[in-house]
Structure formats: C-alpha cells, structure tokens
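Weekly structure sync, notes
Attendees: PL (lead), two postdocs, one rotation student
Agenda item 3: pending single-chain targets
PL asked that the sequence for the first pending target be pasted directly into the notes so everyone works from the same version. It is reproduced below exactly as submitted, 96 residues in total.
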Amino acid sequence: MKFKPLRDRVLVKYSDEPEKSSGGLYIPDSAKEKPQKGEVIAVGPGRITDDGKLQKMEIKIGDVVLFEKYSGSKINIDNTEYLIIKEDDILGIIEK
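Predicted structure, written out during the meeting:
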C-alpha cells in the first residue's frame, strides 16, 4: 500500500528498540515505551501560508528525526506501525 501525507504532515516509521534493558532483562512489548525517534518514510508538499503561498517542507524522505512523545496519529500499514505527525512536532533531524 502506498501512502502520501497531505500538507505539512510526515509519515514516520518508529525505530527499533532493543529487546533487553541495559541490565540484561528482557522487556515485554506491553511495558515498552514508544520511541521518540524514527525514519521519515513520506512527506507532504508543505503548508499553505496566510498569503496563499506554499512553504516547502524542511524534512525529506530518509531523515531520522526526533519528535514529541505524544504527537501524531498512529496507523498500521502492511502490519507495520507508523506515525503521522505535523512538521511542527518534529524537534530535529539526527545527522549521521
């Protein structure tokens, strides 16, 4: 399935979390917190400013981003969980 976000929205795939804690204990899925880091899979065209112009997105496909903990809407595509968030909820890009 293909998905294209509208306006200033971004489709983010959660980063994988380690299965073990630093102390060597296995963490069950129900106790894990969702990560605040993920890879951008798709981006919308940008937002429309008050004067009607298109402001392009700063985020691009493939960027690894940090985002606010409780932002966005969760969706499931092909048994993979994604998050749709606004560009404003992205705190920064992790550069390699």
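Discussion points:
- The CA atoms of residues 11 and 84 lie 5 Å apart.
- Strands lie at 9-14, 37-43, 46-48, 54-56, 64-67, 73-77, 80-86, 90-94.
Action: rotation student to compare against the earlier draft before next sync.
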